[in-house]
């Protein structure tokens, strides 16, 4: 294991604890106007909009509906564009037809938020109902109403991949297991809702947009595309972001609209999403069905796998496009040796809020299906669930190991060692025996486990191109050492609660052998910070962003050593950078401080021949492959046989995210993901009725796990550095959310036996479904 870097987990946390964070809602400008979005109350209807009553309100500056923007705002670009994918052509405001509750229909701009809300309530929308498609099954029906008249059906895109000979494997296998596993729609539910403040920039005849987003450069690109203006006229600034979890990774129509309004009115305009709006306007996650079949030998070897992944995109495919389904196809074989595989994906539209990225992005859904099916297979064969997994894990000596489909390369890991470490730490065998004894006494106690692998450090750019992502996978970092010797790191990565700024600070300081506090990280400004190809998503901040910082710091170190060697009268290869100074190796008397070297670089009175003045360095990093984080979750549960309520009594989580740059942040990320996994498993669900009306519209009705619902959590870890990244780090931001649903579901199945066979295959697992019928 690699020793962790010293230092506190996150010194900047004090600013937030003291209430000194600044979010979009905290920003104000002279003459600022306020915008309110008018949203559809129906799931599918032709509409006629009468905004004249709103325009007549004193203090209203502008009201726009869909007809008003047809010529000035184009449809947004597709993020994940695969061959044959269909496009909706929808713009930021609906025109003539709405396709989900919450779709923007009009926007009102007024001198105060109160006036804007009053006027928005006066916008009249006449609805002529159309048939509603509220589920995947309805979308795929032969006679299904079409959401888009120019599409032949409701399928956005589909694809298939195969490896080996799956038909032969299934034909010869003595054991078959099959199931349908449903991951329900959930809300990312960050503490801060979305917000945008756009202001006219007279110097550039452009616009400055403040947005709570994970991808400032991607927002700038979308604004430029939709409004038809050059990117250099658009500046995107990201203040503090109060959580995102993937939901703020794609550009939204509100960012496009606010930029248009600021340019049109030559005034600052702000919009803040209400919590009620967030339930229908901010992209939810999951909403996926995985049909999976396993073929096994009598001794538990997995001979073949077939899977069909169906993703409900809601009404609009642009937000993250088909990516969650394609990512699921990549990860469906998990950590196991499976030589014969066939996986198909299809993405459909329904009359619901468009789904987007959410913590795990397609991996929790297929992990839930695979690990549930493996438990059923173990039960069928008569093997312990842990032993069945052991017999199929990819061995360490086989790494890097490609999957049968060629979609995934397992880069590094010690899977069997992780399994043993976690089982021992959990006291697995003793817990299994105690649970069996408890069930004999009439109590419903069960033990469950789930292994997982997670694609992190999203890239490389060539892979992004191969799978249809309209973005690169690289990151650029720029470093500047000031004349006083302190360093400023400029990055396109966005902190949103995960602490990436702290990690970049540590990596830079370690490379330059200086105190952490001498490094400042600047982020969230497209005018000052270098381009980040995919934004802050895909668990890539440390691995890719951090590697770019390390490379840039290495180049800066070379220049420091060259100048320092000149100052002490030595050759560059005779000196080293150590503890904030340059010195001749083995001769501490011939030493010069970094501050003196920096001063010399900026005075430029006495530099090596041909040396440019100043101390700047830039580096880009484009990885050769993904980094695959992996691990295992074990859970003990007890189900109340009278109420169906599930108590999660204990969780142990084993993980390997490569080199841990900041173990405290790693722990926080894993535990946060675990809690979200518990929520998705037992509590959270964004249901819709047959008319496409959402059942949840406020916090009161959306059950999130409370502190009392979180059991004791123990963590164990290995550190197997990824060979494809200079710092050896793999991503960890999404890990906790991935295996928890399957581990808890398997534990409930163990507790209740065959009575829970069907109830645990659909998330969330509701208490009423666990009661005897």
Provide the fold topology.
Blueprint: H1 13-17, E1 33-39, E2 45-50, H2 52-55, E3 60-65, H3 66-69, E4 97-98, E5 104-110, H4 113-120, E6 124-129, H5 136-140, E7 155-163, H6 166-172, E8 175-186, E9 195-201, E10 206-211, H7 216-227, E11 234-237, H8 253-265, E12 269-272, H9 275-281, E13 285-296, E14 302-312, H10 323-331, E15 341-348, H11 363-381, H12 385-390, E16 401-402, E17 409-410, H13 415-426, H14 428-440, E18 444-456, H15 461-466, E19 475-481, E20 487-491, H16 500-511, E21 519-522, H17 541-568, E22 575-578, E23 581-584, E24 587-593, H18 594-603, E25 616-621, E26 627-639, E27 646-656, H19 663-682, E28 713-718, H20 740-752, E29 762-763
Parallel strand pairs: 1-12, 8-29, 10-11, 14-15, 20-21, 27-28
Antiparallel strand pairs: 1-5, 2-4, 2-6, 3-5, 7-15, 8-13, 9-10, 9-12, 13-14, 16-17, 18-26, 19-20, 19-25, 22-23, 23-24, 26-27
Q: Compute the separation of the termini in Å.
A: 51 Å
Uncertain parts:
1-7
User: How many distinct helices?
Assistant: 20
How much strand content do the residues show?
A: 15-25%
Q: What is the residue-averaged pLDDT?
A: 94
Number of domains: 3
From the helix content, strand content and strand pairing, which structural class follows?
alpha+beta
The main β sheet shows up as: 7 strands, mixed
Residue share in helix: 25-40%
Radius of gyration: 27 Å
CATH architecture of the largest domain: 2-Layer Sandwich
Please write the CATH class name of the largest domain: Alpha Beta
- The overall strand count is 29
CATH fold naming of the largest domain: Aldehyde Oxidoreductase, domain 4
* Shape annotation: globular
**Could you give me the name of the CATH homologous superfamily of the largest domain?**
Aldehyde oxidase/xanthine dehydrogenase, molybdopterin binding domain
Strand order in the sheet with the most strands: 3-5-1-12-9-10-11
Protein name: Xanthine dehydrogenase, molybdenum binding subunit apoprotein
Keywords: Molybdenum, Oxidoreductase
Domain Aldehyde oxidase/xanthine dehydrogenase a/b hammerhead: 18-131
Pfam families: Ald_Xan_dh_C, MoCoBD_1, MoCoBD_2
């Amino acid at each position: 294991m690699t020793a962790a870097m010293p230092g506190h987990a996150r010194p900047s946390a004090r600013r937030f604890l003291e209430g000194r964070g600044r979010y979009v809602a905290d920003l104000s400008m002279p003459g600022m106007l306020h915008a309110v979005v008018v949203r559809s109350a129906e799931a599918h209807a032709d509409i006629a909009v009468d905004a004249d009553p709103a325009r007549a309100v004193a203090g209203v500056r502008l009201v726009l509906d869909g007809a008003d923007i047809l010529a000035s705002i184009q449809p947004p670009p597709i993020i994940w564009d695969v061959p044959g994918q269909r496009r909706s052509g929808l713009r930021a405001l609906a025109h003539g037809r709405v396709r989900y509750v919450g779709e923007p229909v009009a926007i009102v701009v007024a001198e105060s938020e109160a006036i804007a809300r009053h006027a928005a309530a006066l916008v009249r929308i006449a609805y002529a109902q159309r048939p509603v498609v509220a589920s995947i099954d309805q979308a795929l029906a032969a006679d299904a109403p079409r959401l888009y008249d120019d599409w032949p059906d409701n399928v956005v895109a589909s694809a298939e991949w195969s490896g080996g000979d799956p038909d032969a494997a299934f034909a010869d296998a003595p054991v078959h297991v099959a199931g349908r596993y449903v991951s329900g729609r959930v809300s990312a539910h960050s503490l801060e809702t979305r917000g945008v403040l756009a202001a006219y920039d007279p110097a550039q005849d452009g616009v400055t947009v403040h947005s709570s987003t994970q991808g400032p450069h991607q927002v700038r690109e979308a604004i430029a595309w939709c409004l038809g203006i050059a990117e250099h006229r658009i500046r995107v600034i990201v203040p503090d972001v109060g959580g995102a979890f993937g939901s703020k990774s794609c550009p939204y129509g509100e960012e496009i609209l606010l930029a248009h309004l600021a340019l049109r009115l030559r005034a600052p305009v702000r919009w803040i999403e209400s919590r009620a709006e967030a339930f229908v306007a901010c992209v939810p996650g999951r909403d996926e069905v995985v049909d999976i079949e396993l073929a096994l030998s009598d001794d538990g070897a997995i001979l073949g796998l077939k899977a069909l992944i169906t993703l409900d995109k809601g009404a609009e495919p642009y937000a993250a496009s088909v990516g969650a389904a394609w990512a699921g196809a990549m990860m469906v074989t998990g950590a196991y040796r499976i030589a014969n595989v066939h996986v198909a994906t299809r993405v459909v539209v329904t009359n619901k809020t468009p789904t987007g990225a959410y913590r795990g992005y397609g991996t929790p859904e297929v992990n839930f299906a695979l690990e549930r099916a493996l438990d059923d297979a173990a039960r069928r064969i008569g093997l312990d669930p842990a032993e069945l997994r052991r017999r199929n894990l990819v061995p360490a000596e086989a790494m890097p190991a490609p999957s049968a489909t060629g979609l995934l390369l397992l880069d590094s890991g010690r899977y069997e060692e992780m399994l043993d470490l976690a089982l021992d730490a959990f006291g697995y065998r003793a817990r299994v025996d105690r649970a069996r004894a408890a069930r004999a006494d009439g109590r419903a106690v069960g033990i469950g486990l789930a292994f997982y692998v997670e694609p992190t450090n999203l890239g490389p750019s060539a892979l992004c191109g191969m799978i249809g992502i309209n973005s690169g996978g690289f990151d650029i970092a720029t470093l500047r050492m000031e004349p006083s010797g302190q360093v400023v790191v400029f990055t396109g990565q966005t902190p949103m609660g995960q602490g990436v700024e702290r990690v970049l600070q540590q990596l830079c300081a370690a490379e330059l052998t200086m105190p952490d506090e001498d490094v400042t990280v600047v982020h969230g400004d497209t005018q000052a910070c270098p381009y980040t190809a995919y934004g802050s998503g895909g668990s890539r901040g440390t691995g890719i962003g951090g590697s770019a910082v390390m490379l840039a710091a290495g180049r800066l170190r070379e220049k420091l050593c060259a100048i320092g060697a000149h100052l002490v009268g030595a050759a560059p290869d005779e000196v080293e950078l150590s503890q904030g100074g340059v010195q001749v190796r083995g001769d501490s008397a011939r030493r010069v401080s970094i501050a003196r070297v920096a001063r010399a670089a900026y005075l430029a009175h006495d530099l090596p021949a041909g040396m440019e003045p100043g101390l700047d360095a830039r580096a880009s990093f484009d990885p050769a492959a993904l980094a695959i984080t992996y691990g295992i979750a074990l859970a003990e549960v007890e189900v109340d046989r009278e109420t169906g309520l599930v108590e999660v009594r204990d969780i142990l989580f084993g993980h390997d995210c490569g080199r841990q740059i900041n173990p405290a942040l790693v722990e926080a990320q894993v535990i946060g993901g675990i809690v979200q996994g518990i929520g998705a498993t037992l509590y959270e669900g964004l249901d819709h009725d047959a008319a496409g009306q959402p059942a949840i519209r406020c916090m009161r009705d959306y059950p999130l796990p409370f502190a009392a619902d979180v059991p004791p959590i123990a963590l164990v870890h290995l550190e197997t550095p990824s060979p494809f990244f200079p710092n050896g780090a793999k991503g960890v931001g999404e890990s906790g959310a991935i295996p928890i649903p399957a581990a808890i579901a398997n534990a409930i199945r163990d507790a209740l036996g065959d009575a829970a066979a069907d109830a645990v295959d659909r998330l969330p697992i509701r208490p009423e479904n666990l009661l005897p019928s």
